[in-house]
Amino acid sequence: MRWRPAAFLLCAATAGPAFAQPMILPEGMAIPLETRQELSSKSARVGDAVELAVARPVTIGGVTLIPAGSPAAGTVSRVRDNGLLGRSGKLDIKVSAIKVGGIDVPVRGQRNAQGKSGTLGAVGAGIVFLPLAVIVRGKDVKLPVGTPFEVYVDREVSIG
């Protein structure tokens, strides 16, 4: 009967789950993201939430710390619709965190996109016929689903 407690402790020590040591995501480490929704400078508004996700798993030493598909919190920080005289649209997206399990990994990064300018057309139309130059518009910014985006770990984070 004396061996039962010792055998129990031995079995419990060897059969229990292995506790992994926490891994450190270093500050400044690049994390590839991609958009999960189509965005346009024509319809976006400052403060709109933007759906982003980790494009490829983030690994250190063969251990995946952030799986592909992990969601990221993004917002539209600046938007400008295209305008007259060939002014192009603009769209800026800011990312603040990536959700990994129950942890928010703070990140920094911003995507700035600009549509094509119609200035040359406006100048040409202005030379030929002045009122036509006023109605030449630049292009809207359109970011399709899957547009790549890169952010960086804002401060060292322990995961695991």
Termini separation: 40 Å
Largest sheet: 6 strands, antiparallel, barrel
Average residue pLDDT: 76
Q: Which geometry do the CA atoms define?
A: elongated
Uncertain segments of ≥5 residues (pLDDT<50)?
3-19, 117-137
Q: What class, by secondary structure content?
A: alpha+beta
The count of DSSP E runs of length 2 or more, i.e. the number of strands, is: 13
Strand content: 35-45%
CATH architecture: Beta Barrel
Overall structural domain count = 1
Task: Tell me the helix content.
Answer: 10-25%
What is the name of the CATH class? Answer: Mainly Beta
Gyration radius, in Å: 25 Å
CATH topology name, in short, is Lipocalin
Q: What's the helix-strand series?
A: HEEEEEEEEEEHHEEE
Number of helix segments?
3
Q: Biggest sheet: strands side by side, in what order?
A: 2-4-7-8-9-12
Describe the structure.
It is a single chain. The protein is built from three helices and 13 strands; from the N terminus they run αββββββββββααβββ. With 160 residues, it is an alpha+beta fold. The protein has a single domain (22-159), classed as Lipocalin, CATH 2.40.128. The longest helix has 13 residues, at 3-15.
